[in-house]
Amino acid sequence: MDGEDFAGKAAAEAKGLNPGLIVLLVVGLPLVMFLIANYVLYVYAQKNLPPRKKKPVSKKKLKREKLKQGVPVPGE
């Protein structure tokens, strides 16, 4: 009896996929696809989008930098 019962369980388990493998596929595949899509978009953006413009530096910051360097600020 035990021999037949064990063989039946083994056959049933062999037919289905391993639950760990299913979880790995369900979590892993979207993650890999997400990373690949991000990389593709990054490469596309580097080639096709113009570089970002720098923000203009305020006069207050310019004065502060010149004072740090010891350069006399004009008008003072």
TrEMBL record:
Region (Disordered): 51-76
Pfam families (UniProt xref): S1FA
Keyword Membrane among UniProt keywords: yes
Key words, A-Z: DNA-binding, Membrane, Nucleus, Repressor, Transcription, Transcription regulation, Transmembrane, Transmembrane helix
Domain of life per record: Eukaryota
Membrane-spanning segments: 20-45
Record bears the keyword Transcription regulation: yes
Compartment(s) where it occurs, according to its Swiss-Prot or TrEMBL record: Nucleus
InterPro entries: S1FA_DNA-bd
Chain intervals with Basic residues compositional bias: 51-66
Family statement drawn from the similarity comment of this UniProt entry: Belongs to the S1FA transcription factor family.
PANTHER family: DNA-BINDING PROTEIN S1FA1-RELATED, DNA-BINDING PROTEIN S1FA2
Its job: DNA-binding protein that specifically recognizes a negative element (S1F) within the RPS1 promoter.
Name under which the protein is recorded: DNA-binding protein S1FA1-like
Taxon lineage: Eukaryota, Viridiplantae, Streptophyta, Embryophyta, Tracheophyta
